[in-house]
Write a structure and sequence with these properties.
With 320 residues, this protein is α+β, with helices and mostly antiparallel strands. The protein has two domains: 89 residues; 204 residues, no CATH class. 43% of the residues lie in helices and 24% in strands. An eight-stranded antiparallel β-barrel has the order 1-3-2-6-7-5-8-4, surrounded by four helices. Helix 2 packs parallel to helix 4, helix 3 packs antiparallel against helix 4 and helix 8 runs antiparallel to helix 9.
């Protein structure tokens, strides 16, 4: 992604809020097209070792302009983004054929979220019995009520596997569906340990060969009570990185209580959609150094890479 061009303070001060907003929208619009163009050039370069047609996708810019229509329409950019995501997926699918992704080998965890809004106590009792003396760990997740409205506690089951993705994906899904056939599964997420072989290392690897929306790196941190100043420091770090690198990310906090441990933990989760392992670990180190400044006890949880999600659009939290 391109960084916004620097502007002089006199230039910025002369613009109205509406003009600043529109300038930002125009910048994002151009960046979306350049992202498509970047993928197309990669598709040309891989089989031929040359970029023989620099204007091959120029027609897409005209389509994007038609989709956008009135640039001042607040919903216009969302329509363009939906189109660009479809085109990006098409090109990435072809790239995957040209250069098959390296399988990810190592440790994986599956997180199963159950539908239990209407009968939480009964579901909790049944799942306790179901998970007893098995490889599954049962936990209760509660989103931060300060950031989310109308939140409900969620029941999740967690289990570890060792193998190779994507071949292990079907095995995990079939096994989970068989083990919990009598329960309503709302969501299933498979996450790879960030140290596994085959996890996209560079930002370019992630952007070229992995879906922007489905696959992401997640960083998790335990928070102690009355540690709001630490959480604010986290947000400052992420905001700074987002401005410098134009990152697409999300941040949320929640409480998790593992049934077998009978204690709750407050956890902050950060998700990054367009970076590779190297950048994710750099950010993780930056956050950990901040924790040390506050004499915060060691609370590092190994970063994870989401490889599979049955419901990526669900506004739910399922973490370790």
């Amino acid at each position: 992604m391109m960084n916004p061009p620097p502007r002089s303070s006199s230039c910025c001060s002369s613009l109205t809020d509406g003009e600043k907003t529109q300038a930002r929208r125009d910048f994002i619009f151009k960046n979306l097209f350049h992202g498509i163009r970047f993928l197309d050039l990669a598709e040309q370069l891989i089989p031929t070792r040359s970029m023989y047609d620099l204007s091959r996708v120029s027609y897409i810019l005209d389509i994007m302009k038609d989709i956008r229509g009135d640039p001042t329409d607040e919903a216009a950019l969302d329509r363009v983004l939906d189109f660009v995501r479809i085109k990006s997926t098409e090109i990435k699918t072809r790239l995957d054929t040209l250069v098959p992704r390296e399988p990810i080998r190592g440790i994986f965890k599956v997180y199963i979220t159950f539908e239990c809004r209407s009968n939480f106590p009964q579901m909790l009792k049944e799942l306790k019995n179901k998970c007893h003396n098995t490889k599954y760990q049962l936990a209760i997740i509660q989103a931060d009520t300060n950031t989310k409205k109308d939140t409900f506690p969620q029941l999740i089951a967690i289990r570890s596997y060792h193998g190779e993705y994507p071949s292990i994906g079907g095995l995990i899904e079939n096994e989970v569906n068989e083990d919990f056939a009598e329960f309503d599964i709302a969501r299933m997420i498979i996450k790879s340990s960030v140290s596994n072989q085959g996890v996209p290392s560079s930002d370019i690897d992630k952007q070229l060969f992995w879906d922007e929306q489905t696959h992401c790196f997640e960083l998790h941190y335990h928070l102690l009570p009355n540690q709001s100043h630490v959480e604010r420091s986290f947000y400052r770090i992420i905001d700074g990185r987002k401005r410098r690198l134009a990152l697409e990310s999300s941040c949320s906090s929640y409480t998790m209580k593992r049934i077998d441990q009978n204690r709750s933990q407050s956890i902050l989760k950060m998700s990054f959609f367009d970076i590779g392992r190297k950048t994710a670990l750099e950010m993780n180190d930056e956050v950990m150094n901040t924790l040390k400044q506050y004499s915060h006890p060691s609370s590092k949880i190994e970063p994870e890479f989401v490889v599979y999600d049955t419901n990526i659009d669900a506004m739910k939290i399922v973490d370790s």
